[in-house]
Specification:
With 690 residues, this protein is an alpha/beta fold. Helices cover 52% and strands 7% of the residues. The protein contains 33 helices and ten strands. The chain has a five-stranded parallel beta sheet, with helices on both faces. It has a five-stranded parallel beta sheet with strand order 7-8-9-6-10, sandwiched between helices. Helix 9 (146-154) crosses helix 10 (158-164) and helix 21 runs parallel beside helix 23. The chain is elongated, with a radius of gyration of 38 Å. The relative contact order is 0.06. The model is unreliable at 327-337, 455-461 and 685-690 (pLDDT under 50).
Length: 690
């Protein structure tokens, strides 16, 4: 920055003060003289041999005589005024400083007139120049009115300054200057990003934009990683491409979904795929700290103005929740909305640069705001196949090598992409093993769920073995028919029978054979104490299964499809009605398992394509199970036990391993007998041949 040029700017400020009628009072002039003697002399603003304090004494004499004509005042300061005028004239013949070049570029880009540019220059220099800061601070003590103060410094009228600093004017509306209070620091506040850009840019518009807005956001995943979002993602891409390159105004796209589902990364990948420059806005305040609502809006408006004439640019406003939700309320389960509705509505109507808005909780948005979006795209946790592709790419980019078996097992977990990335980063530094990845992923999932580990959804204690199933339907034949390429997908199954007979295990087996991910929903996942929330959760479960193309399973469905004739509360009926409605229209396979078939509503039974009963193992199957689970022939006494299930053998094996008696047939039979006795004397086979 040219010191001579900037000294000339300061000289102009002082000259403007000394030649203004509003300065012809003793106290302000004394303040100015103090500054000139303390700092102005070092800048060469005081002529040699001049004692400014003597000039002030002459002013006192004039003041006491009530002669305050401008001519008299200027005559007293004539030597100083001539000296300052000479400095200003000399400065005009020299090249501008880097700061001044960037100020002129920014003013031209935003369409600022000369007064607006000078106002911005004053505010910027107040924050970057200690001399200007001290001049303003000392002089402002005597001039509390902002408009009067700025008019004095810039040598213009107070009315012009008032017009340029009104709330809807270009300087304030663009976010270049913020008027937030009464102190001089608040009245001449410029965002840190603007200050950084004006100080650092190399005198060209491209450099200035990048310094103020920041670098272009770069993606980590290719476009193919989001293939599970097709065709919606493809339609969004076509629309955004035409809007960005055609210069359309008022273009906004909403991206919503739970945290960690890859919304931000999708936006980066989308723009890179289209060859567009994506700029994130409002992610830090002017001090680099957490921004508030005002900081974020100012950054957004400034970026819109800077990029309005640059085709091929897109803005990203992440965590839109900050704009539409305030602090938590102790009386309401949701956050309280803050801010002006009409302001946000207008903000989305006239933006010249297309904007991608990201929000986690879309219910925070009111209908008028959503209507101003051109498109709303929902981001959900990807399907298992899509998750495996994401894992593969992130593992490769992170330099972590896992076996195909480990990769398949990890991808089977319903983990958001952001968690995957964090787990891989940890594993890379911790050793790079599958155990490291698994450990980090589990710890992050637990933290995301409030410190609670979710019940496992993809593993059961029992593993389905076709030879150990005792059903009233040929399961091998059913599986073969449903796995045919031309088989219908909108099939439903009701699997009923005693606990442990393999109902849920068979559904998992069937889904895997059909190449589908399993989506298990338990009563604890769906029930809510709030009116209508359980019905919403049921609808969300069917929608999730449809979007993921997954095999939906309702475990212990008797709690969801209870006989309405015995309902005691209205919500019990509405809950069953919701289930029945979705069962009729769901396009993907789903199954309900229950141990209490007689408690299901009669109408629900008519909606199942297949009703399959599971019973206790036959004697021959019990012998087979004994050999499979314990690796030895079954004792003859095993035939005395008639109510055994595959689940019983799995439990006994686990118990025997703990007690170190897996090779003791007598002890194993005793444990199996105990499992049968726990079921009570009323338990009998369902009538299948043994």
């Amino acid at each position: 920055m040219s010191e001579k040029f900037e000294n000339g700017v300061v000289a102009r400020y002082v000259l403007n003060i000394l030649t203004s009628r509003k300065s012809f009072q003793v106290n302000p002039l004394e303040t100015l003289v103090e500054w000139l003697e303390d700092e102005g002399a070092d800048l060469g603003l005081v002529p040699a041999g001049v004692c400014l304090r003597d000039d002030v004494e002459q002013i006192r004499e004039v003041w006491r005589g009530r002669d305050i004509a401008p001519r008299a005042i200027r005559k007293i300061f004539s030597t100083t005024l001539e000296h300052l005028s000479g400095i200003c004239e000399a400065t005009q013949g020299k090249g501008p400083s880097r700061l001044e070049k960037n100020l002129r570029l920014l003013a031209a880009e935003l369409g600022l007139d000369e007064i607006e540019r000078d106002l911005l220059g004053l505010a910027v220099r107040y924050q970057v120049s200690s001399e200007v800061e001290n001049l303003c601070d000392s002089f402002f003590r005597r001039k509390r009115n902002t408009h009067t103060f700025c008019a004095l410094m810039l040598g213009t009228s107070m009315q012009q300054i008032a017009e340029k600093l009104r709330p809807g004017a270009r300087l304030i509306g663009s976010g270049l200057i913020e008027l937030t209070g009464n102190s001089i620091h608040e009245l001449l506040s410029v965002p840190e990003s603007v200050l950084h850009g004006l100080r650092s840019a190399q005198g060209d518009l491209g450099s200035l934009r990048s310094q103020i807005i920041g670098p272009v956001s770069a993606p980590q995943l290719p476009w193919e990683a989001f293939s599970y979002l097709m065709p919606a993602a493809g339609q969004a891409a076509n629309f955004l491409k035409e809007a960005a390159r055609g210069g359309l105004s008022g273009v906004n796209i909403l991206i919503y979904g739970p945290p960690g589902t890859g919304k931000t990364e999708f936006c980066k990948t989308l723009c890179a795929h289209l060859g567009l420059d994506l700029f994130s806005v409002g992610e830090a305040d002017e001090d680099g700290d957490e921004p508030d609502r005002r900081d974020r809006l100012n950054s957004y408006r400034l970026s819109q103005n800077l990029l309005r004439y640059q085709r091929g640019s897109v803005l990203l406003f992440d965590e839109m929740d900050d704009l539409v939700a305030g602090g938590a309320s102790p009386f309401l389960p949701r956050r309280v909305r803050t801010g002006s509705k009409i302001f946000l509505n207008r903000l989305l109507e006239n933006n010249p640069v297309p904007t991608l808005w990201i929000i986690n909780d879309v219910t925070l948005l009111e209908a008028p705001l959503v209507r101003r979006m051109a498109l709303a795209l929902e981001m959900k946790t990807p399907s298992r196949a899509a998750r495996q592709q994401v894992w593969e790419r992130l593992l490769a980019s992170g330099g972590v090598d896992l076996s195909p078996e480990d990769l398949t097992e990890l991808a089977a977990q319903d983990v958001p992409p952001a968690v995957v990335e964090g787990a891989i980063r940890f594993a890379k530094l911790a050793g790079g093993s599958s155990d490291d990845v698994r450990f980090a992923a589990r710890s992050l999932v637990k933290a995301m769920n409030g410190g609670r580990m979710l019940a496992p959804k993809d593993k059961d204690l029992e593993v389905f073995a076709p030879d150990l199933s005792h059903a009233d339907l040929d399961l091998d034949h059913l599986t073969a028919r449903l796995c045919r390429p031309d088989a219908a997908r909108n099939v439903s199954l009701c699997l009923h029978g005693p606990p442990g007979t393999g109902k849920t295990a068979y559904v998992r087996y069937l889904a895997e054979a059909m190449g589908l991910e399993v989506l298990v929903k338990r009563a604890s996942d769906l029930f809510s104490p709030y009116v209508g929330a359980s019905e919403q959760n049921i609808a969300a479960a069917f929608n999730e299964a449809r979007d993921k193309q997954a095999f939906l399973v309702f475990d212990e469905a008797d709690s969801l499809l209870g006989d309405r004739r015995y309902a005691q509360r209205s919500w019990e009926i509405s809950q069953v009605n919701e289930m029945l409605t979705w069962m009729e229209s769901h396009p993907m396979p789903f199954a309900c398992t229950t141990n209490l078939m007689d408690r299901l509503d009669a109408a629900s039974l008519r909606r199942f394509t297949f009703k399959v009963g599971f019973d206790y193992l036959r004697p021959s199957q019990c012998e087979q199970a004994f050999e499979l689970f314990f690796g030895q022939p079954a004792p003859a006494s095993l035939r005395d036990l008639s109510v055994l299930t595959p689940g019983d053998f799995a439990v006994v094996r686990q118990k025997a391993q703990v007690l170190a008696c897996t090779q003791d047939p007598a002890e194993l039979i005793a444990m199996l007998t105990q499992e049968c006795q726990v079921k009570g004397p009323s338990q009998r086979p369902m009538g299948f041949a043994c």
